[in-house]
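Researcher: Sequence of Crotonase/enoyl-CoA hydratase family protein follows. Predict its structure.
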Amino acid sequence: MSYDSLTLNIDAKIAHIQLNCPDTLNTMTPAFWRELPEVVQHIDREAAARVIVLSSTGKHFCAGMDLSVFTGGALTSKQELGRKHENLRRTVLQLQEALSQLEKVRMPVLAAIQGGCIGGAVDMVTACDSRYCTEDAFFSIEETKLGMTADVGTLQRLPHLIPQGLVRELAYTGRRMYADEAKQAGLINRVYPDQATMLNDVMDIAAQIAARSPLAVTGCKEMINYTRDHSVADSLNYMAAWQSGMFQPETDMMETFMAKAEKREPDFEELNKMTSIFD
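Model: Prediction complete. Tokens:
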């Protein structure tokens, strides 16, 4: 499949999604908002990979929302005011859902960030499982500078990743948070001298994930996401329910033991493709 705003390459059970509009700083155009959820859902639906790496091209990772998104559709249409605002609400929900696909997909998503990660790009990377960046990277909740409140996920997810006081400072001021501070705060796992070194290492991390049982890995993602939004007691109860159905020691665990005894890499069955009852 070909896309206007990104490219997709799948190799060795790793899906590499790369934003591919460097001349416009990989801004989030209408095509991006259509294509990103489409490609993520395709990977999930087809069980096409075991892990996803999200990166970009050019000097900057992503400069945020493209102006065309602000100047079209529900924002400028001549409608009765109540209906116009109801339409705007649904537009924001659609944008939120597009980025939430990174969180909902069964496979872990690793973001590799260089240069600027601005506005909507912060919304995007906070929906990923892990983040890595170059020394020249910076993060900015740019919406405040534009006279609006970030509305596609940053203010909901970032407080679960870094201290609330820092989130508030960044949101209220719109200032840039550079790589070293992002690493110290816990937003970033590792900082690299350049993009090539970063991508090489992130691909190695992705390969380590891809070598594990995909059912075990998706169980980890499911549990960590659930625990973030629920109490410890509720999360433990859900863990027990999940394990009672998904834990099959005679399959993946036995394959691990056999592979170790036979001095080979384990060969795990892929996750099932997602099918409809109407197929």
